Amino acid sequence: MSDMPEEDIETRRKRLLYRAIYTGMKETDLLFGGFAREFLPSCDEKALDEFEHLLTADDQTLYGWAIGREAPPPEYDNSVMKALQAYRFKVIR
Prior knowledge:
Elements: H1 9-21, H2 26-39, H3 45-54, H4 59-67, H5 79-91
């Protein structure tokens, strides 16, 4: 067991927003950060888990999945990825 206290949901949302805005690749920062600003405030724990899992992918790979350059593998093809892919149509025309 960890000695660290459990993170409350609002702190987790803020941490994930920061990670989404500062991924390391400008295109991903803009797309993923904008998506996170709109999406994270209403996320439940399951969606936060899926979102956090997406952040484990390489930036260029994640961007390719988000813009439809290639299909994400099953372990990343979740409801949050689908929402991100739909969001990109809203911002990238």
